[in-house]
Amino acid sequence: MRPPPPSARAGAAPSPDGPAGAPSARRGALATGPDVVELEFQDHRLFHELLGRQDEHVKAIEKALGVRIGVAGKAVSIGGDPVDRELAGRVMTQLYGVLERGFPVYASDVDYALRILASDHTANVRDIFLDTVYIAAQKRVITPKSVMQKAYIDSIRTHDIVFAIGPAGTGKTYLAMAMGVAAVLKQEFTRIVLTRPAVEAGEKLGFLPGDLAEKVNPYLRPLYDALHDMVDFDRARKMLERGTIEVAPLAFMRGRTLNDSFVILDEAQNTTPEQMKMFLTRLGYGSKAIVTGDVTQTDLPAGKISGLKEAQHVLKDIDDIKFVRFSERDVVRHRLVQDIITAYERAEGASARNES
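^ that's the sequence the OP posted. Answer follows.
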């Protein structure tokens, strides 16, 4: 998802001196020599947008890669380790290509581009960022932000059943919903069905008041939140009233046949094998199913097998079912989330080795 403009994002404006510990871009002075990469850009306005407000994009690249970037006119010079300065040059060149196509570049995009090109030097950031999925209610453009996210939306376009497995914050459900909303608005499907198992996340909530719908509604709140982020409130309400969008707990799927529907099963790691089989066999003619989940965050009772874990093995040899696996490198939330996931995985790995 492309984030809102800087003025709409939470947090204070960056300091003129840039992030703490980051070297400052040198204005009016270009370094020269064999250890320097020099780049010149054509359009002054686009070049200014590439640098970012108060050179925040340049400072972010300097801090991430430890390079030194000089700025003069419409040119930059990049000094530092040969590998790092070459990566910095590719990041700036490819982001400029995004700007040339009329799309804005935000500070988060710089971070995504650094991650993408650091892990795959053959990647084309412009192809990834400009693969527009849906124009949201707030006029935000929803696009993939990693190589795996691009592979994911391509898989949704070409397969009727797609499993997206990976940690929180990788855009599994959000991108699936964006694809579903876009497809329904283009009349490729008659409705979207959003479902998830009603399982408590590691804590007992006790008695919940109200009728059955009111009892399960808190479990479905994340799906409503994502929906309202893409469609304005009044339009979402009308689509829900007409049944164009249906949000329901997984238990309500039993006995149904879903024709001409874009169906999303969220939090699938909390299904049992029986529930997973029940869900997958609801699919009718002209329908598509997206199953998302994180097998490392199962909230099932001890001793219960996750239907998502089992499905990976049972269905792996069916050609028309696609499995897309995300990692912490694909996390598109706060950059600390990626570090947190890595730290927990490292700790869990060390614990498993000690127990063995």
